[in-house]
Amino acid sequence: MQKFLSIIFILFLTTGCATLRSETPAPMVSDEIIIDETVAVQEALENIPAPETAIEMDPVEAPVEIEMPQEVVEPTGEPDIEPPELMGFVFAKTIFEGVLKTNYVRLKFVNADHPERTYELHIGEKEPQLPFAFNVKTVNPGYFYIELPAGKYQITSVSIPVGSATATEDINISFEVLPEQINYLGTLSLVGTKERIKLGGVPVIRPGFEYEAAVLNEFDEGVASFQQRFPNLQGTVSNQLMSLNQ
Q1: Which partner for 179 in 142, 150, 163, 206 could form a disulfide, CB atoms 3.0-4.6 Å apart?
Q2: What is the DSSP string of 126-150?
Protein backbone atom coordinates (compact mmCIF):
# COMPACT_ATOMS: atom_id res chain seq x y z
CA MET A 1 0.00 0.00 0.00
CA GLN A 2 2.76 2.40 0.85
CA LYS A 3 4.49 1.52 -2.36
CA PHE A 4 1.35 2.29 -4.32
CA LEU A 5 1.06 5.68 -2.70
CA SER A 6 4.66 6.46 -3.54
CA ILE A 7 4.05 5.75 -7.21
CA ILE A 8 0.98 8.01 -7.29
CA PHE A 9 2.91 10.85 -5.61
CA ILE A 10 5.70 10.59 -8.14
CA LEU A 11 3.22 10.72 -11.03
CA PHE A 12 1.58 13.79 -9.49
CA LEU A 13 4.85 15.63 -9.22
CA THR A 14 5.77 14.77 -12.77
CA THR A 15 2.46 15.94 -14.17
CA GLY A 16 2.54 19.19 -12.19
CA CYS A 17 5.97 20.13 -13.38
CA ALA A 18 4.99 19.53 -16.94
CA THR A 19 1.92 21.68 -16.47
CA LEU A 20 3.95 24.48 -14.94
CA ARG A 21 6.56 24.22 -17.66
CA SER A 22 3.94 24.53 -20.42
CA GLU A 23 2.18 27.53 -18.82
CA THR A 24 5.33 29.56 -18.20
CA PRO A 25 6.35 31.51 -21.40
CA ALA A 26 9.84 31.11 -22.56
CA PRO A 27 12.03 34.17 -22.49
CA MET A 28 12.94 33.74 -26.18
CA VAL A 29 10.76 35.06 -29.04
CA SER A 30 9.66 32.22 -31.19
CA ASP A 31 10.00 32.17 -34.97
CA GLU A 32 6.25 31.92 -35.28
CA ILE A 33 5.67 35.28 -33.59
CA ILE A 34 8.30 37.02 -35.78
CA ILE A 35 6.68 35.70 -38.90
CA ASP A 36 3.26 36.87 -37.74
CA GLU A 37 4.55 40.39 -37.03
CA THR A 38 6.21 40.63 -40.49
CA VAL A 39 3.01 39.61 -42.21
CA ALA A 40 1.09 42.14 -40.18
CA VAL A 41 3.48 44.95 -41.14
CA GLN A 42 3.24 44.03 -44.80
CA GLU A 43 -0.56 43.97 -44.62
CA ALA A 44 -0.56 47.37 -42.88
CA LEU A 45 1.64 48.88 -45.57
CA GLU A 46 -0.60 47.48 -48.29
CA ASN A 47 -3.69 48.93 -46.62
CA ILE A 48 -2.28 52.49 -46.40
CA PRO A 49 -4.44 54.62 -48.78
CA ALA A 50 -2.65 56.35 -51.65
CA PRO A 51 -2.20 60.12 -51.21
CA GLU A 52 -4.98 62.25 -52.72
CA THR A 53 -2.51 64.30 -54.71
CA ALA A 54 -1.28 61.35 -56.64
CA ILE A 55 -1.67 61.92 -60.43
CA GLU A 56 -1.74 59.14 -62.89
CA MET A 57 0.61 59.99 -65.77
CA ASP A 58 -0.03 58.72 -69.25
CA PRO A 59 2.85 56.88 -70.79
CA VAL A 60 5.16 59.27 -72.65
CA GLU A 61 5.15 58.72 -76.37
CA ALA A 62 7.87 59.78 -78.76
CA PRO A 63 7.07 63.11 -80.54
CA VAL A 64 5.75 62.79 -84.06
CA GLU A 65 7.21 65.14 -86.66
CA ILE A 66 4.74 66.45 -89.28
CA GLU A 67 5.91 68.23 -92.38
CA MET A 68 3.84 71.35 -92.93
CA PRO A 69 3.47 72.67 -96.49
CA GLN A 70 5.49 75.80 -97.02
CA GLU A 71 3.30 78.76 -97.79
CA VAL A 72 4.32 81.27 -100.40
CA VAL A 73 4.60 84.57 -98.57
CA GLU A 74 4.42 87.70 -100.60
CA PRO A 75 6.84 90.45 -99.64
CA THR A 76 5.18 92.91 -97.29
CA GLY A 77 7.55 95.76 -97.83
CA GLU A 78 6.67 98.96 -99.59
CA PRO A 79 6.34 98.85 -103.34
CA ASP A 80 9.40 99.70 -105.36
CA ILE A 81 9.65 103.37 -106.15
CA GLU A 82 10.15 104.09 -109.82
CA PRO A 83 13.11 106.29 -110.63
CA PRO A 84 12.25 109.85 -111.62
CA GLU A 85 11.61 110.43 -115.32
CA LEU A 86 14.52 111.95 -117.20
CA MET A 87 13.85 115.39 -118.62
CA GLY A 88 15.32 117.43 -121.40
CA PHE A 89 15.35 121.15 -122.18
CA VAL A 90 14.27 122.21 -125.69
CA PHE A 91 14.22 125.57 -127.44
CA ALA A 92 13.29 126.69 -130.93
CA LYS A 93 12.09 129.67 -132.90
CA THR A 94 8.74 130.08 -134.65
CA ILE A 95 7.83 132.34 -137.57
CA PHE A 96 4.17 132.72 -138.67
CA GLU A 97 3.25 134.62 -141.80
CA GLY A 98 0.20 135.15 -144.03
CA VAL A 99 -3.11 134.02 -142.61
CA LEU A 100 -1.23 132.38 -139.72
CA LYS A 101 -0.10 135.73 -138.41
CA THR A 102 -2.83 135.95 -135.77
CA ASN A 103 -3.26 136.66 -132.06
CA TYR A 104 -2.02 133.17 -131.23
CA VAL A 105 -1.02 129.88 -132.83
CA ARG A 106 -1.54 126.60 -131.03
CA LEU A 107 0.74 123.62 -131.64
CA LYS A 108 -0.15 120.18 -130.33
CA PHE A 109 2.69 117.89 -129.18
CA VAL A 110 2.25 114.13 -128.75
CA ASN A 111 4.73 111.80 -127.07
CA ALA A 112 5.41 109.07 -129.66
CA ASP A 113 6.21 106.48 -126.96
CA HIS A 114 3.14 107.39 -124.88
CA PRO A 115 0.40 108.72 -127.22
CA GLU A 116 -1.84 109.48 -124.24
CA ARG A 117 0.60 112.21 -123.23
CA THR A 118 -0.24 115.38 -125.11
CA TYR A 119 1.04 118.92 -124.67
CA GLU A 120 -0.17 122.22 -126.09
CA LEU A 121 2.07 125.15 -126.87
CA HIS A 122 0.24 128.49 -127.19
CA ILE A 123 2.38 131.04 -128.99
CA GLY A 124 1.06 134.57 -128.43
CA GLU A 125 -2.20 135.30 -126.62
CA LYS A 126 -3.71 132.17 -125.19
CA GLU A 127 -7.30 131.06 -125.27
CA PRO A 128 -9.29 130.90 -122.03
CA GLN A 129 -8.37 127.62 -120.40
CA LEU A 130 -9.16 125.60 -117.33
CA PRO A 131 -6.98 126.24 -114.27
CA PHE A 132 -4.27 123.74 -113.40
CA ALA A 133 -3.79 122.71 -117.04
CA PHE A 134 -0.24 121.51 -116.57
CA ASN A 135 0.10 120.29 -120.15
CA VAL A 136 -0.45 123.77 -121.62
CA LYS A 137 2.37 126.25 -122.02
CA THR A 138 2.01 129.83 -123.26
CA VAL A 139 5.05 131.54 -124.78
CA ASN A 140 5.77 134.73 -126.67
CA PRO A 141 6.40 134.79 -130.44
CA GLY A 142 10.02 134.17 -131.39
CA TYR A 143 12.10 131.73 -129.32
CA PHE A 144 10.40 129.43 -126.81
CA TYR A 145 12.11 127.44 -124.05
CA ILE A 146 10.32 124.49 -122.47
CA GLU A 147 11.16 121.31 -120.55
CA LEU A 148 9.78 117.95 -121.68
CA PRO A 149 10.26 114.30 -120.66
CA ALA A 150 12.97 112.68 -122.76
CA GLY A 151 11.74 110.79 -125.80
CA LYS A 152 10.39 111.16 -129.33
CA TYR A 153 7.63 113.63 -130.18
CA GLN A 154 5.40 114.72 -133.01
CA ILE A 155 3.68 118.03 -133.70
CA THR A 156 0.34 116.77 -135.00
CA SER A 157 -1.75 119.91 -135.52
CA VAL A 158 -1.61 123.68 -135.82
CA SER A 159 -4.59 125.89 -134.89
CA ILE A 160 -5.48 129.57 -135.24
CA PRO A 161 -8.52 131.62 -134.24
CA VAL A 162 -11.03 132.51 -136.97
CA GLY A 163 -13.67 134.81 -135.54
CA SER A 164 -15.37 132.99 -132.66
CA ALA A 165 -14.22 129.60 -133.96
CA THR A 166 -10.88 127.82 -134.28
CA ALA A 167 -9.36 126.55 -137.50
CA THR A 168 -7.19 123.46 -137.13
CA GLU A 169 -5.05 121.72 -139.72
CA ASP A 170 -2.97 118.57 -139.48
CA ILE A 171 0.80 118.78 -139.54
CA ASN A 172 3.50 116.15 -139.23
CA ILE A 173 6.71 117.33 -137.62
CA SER A 174 8.88 115.05 -135.49
CA PHE A 175 11.74 115.73 -133.07
CA GLU A 176 13.59 114.06 -130.22
CA VAL A 177 14.35 115.28 -126.72
CA LEU A 178 17.65 113.93 -125.40
CA PRO A 179 17.73 113.45 -121.62
CA GLU A 180 19.57 115.95 -119.43
CA GLN A 181 20.65 118.04 -122.43
CA ILE A 182 19.76 121.34 -124.06
CA ASN A 183 18.15 120.46 -127.39
CA TYR A 184 18.04 123.01 -130.21
CA LEU A 185 15.12 122.20 -132.53
CA GLY A 186 15.68 124.85 -135.22
CA THR A 187 13.33 127.48 -136.63
CA LEU A 188 9.81 126.45 -137.64
CA SER A 189 8.43 128.65 -140.43
CA LEU A 190 4.70 128.42 -141.21
CA VAL A 191 3.24 130.65 -143.90
CA GLY A 192 -0.52 130.64 -144.35
CA THR A 193 -1.34 130.94 -148.05
CA LYS A 194 -5.14 131.24 -147.96
CA GLU A 195 -8.24 130.59 -145.96
CA ARG A 196 -10.75 127.94 -146.93
CA ILE A 197 -14.05 126.47 -145.86
CA LYS A 198 -14.43 122.80 -144.92
CA LEU A 199 -17.74 121.09 -145.38
CA GLY A 200 -18.71 118.35 -142.97
CA GLY A 201 -21.29 115.61 -143.29
CA VAL A 202 -24.19 117.23 -141.34
CA PRO A 203 -23.47 119.62 -143.19
CA VAL A 204 -21.08 121.55 -140.96
CA ILE A 205 -19.00 124.44 -142.20
CA ARG A 206 -15.61 124.67 -140.57
CA PRO A 207 -12.91 127.26 -141.24
CA GLY A 208 -9.55 126.05 -142.50
CA PHE A 209 -6.41 127.31 -144.16
CA GLU A 210 -3.61 126.26 -146.40
CA TYR A 211 0.02 126.75 -145.40
CA GLU A 212 3.59 126.08 -146.30
CA ALA A 213 6.03 124.74 -143.68
CA ALA A 214 9.79 124.70 -143.45
CA VAL A 215 12.44 123.92 -140.79
CA LEU A 216 15.51 126.17 -140.81
CA ASN A 217 18.87 125.52 -139.15
CA GLU A 218 19.96 128.71 -137.38
CA PHE A 219 22.07 127.00 -134.75
CA ASP A 220 24.57 129.80 -134.07
CA GLU A 221 21.81 132.38 -133.71
CA GLY A 222 19.85 130.03 -131.49
CA VAL A 223 22.81 129.35 -129.17
CA ALA A 224 23.53 133.07 -128.86
CA SER A 225 19.89 133.76 -128.00
CA PHE A 226 19.90 130.96 -125.43
CA GLN A 227 23.06 132.22 -123.72
CA GLN A 228 21.60 135.72 -123.57
CA ARG A 229 18.41 134.42 -121.99
CA PHE A 230 20.12 132.00 -119.59
CA PRO A 231 23.67 133.30 -118.97
CA ASN A 232 24.25 131.11 -115.91
CA LEU A 233 22.81 127.86 -117.26
CA GLN A 234 25.53 125.36 -118.08
CA GLY A 235 25.09 122.32 -120.28
CA THR A 236 25.66 120.72 -123.65
CA VAL A 237 23.61 122.13 -126.52
CA SER A 238 22.76 119.46 -129.10
CA ASN A 239 21.52 120.23 -132.60
CA GLN A 240 18.31 118.16 -132.72
CA LEU A 241 16.54 119.75 -135.68
CA MET A 242 12.86 119.10 -136.21
CA SER A 243 12.02 116.92 -139.17
CA LEU A 244 9.20 117.95 -141.49
CA ASN A 245 7.37 114.85 -142.72
CA GLN A 246 5.29 115.36 -145.89
Answers
A1: 150
A2: PPP--TT-TTEEEE-SEEEEEEEES
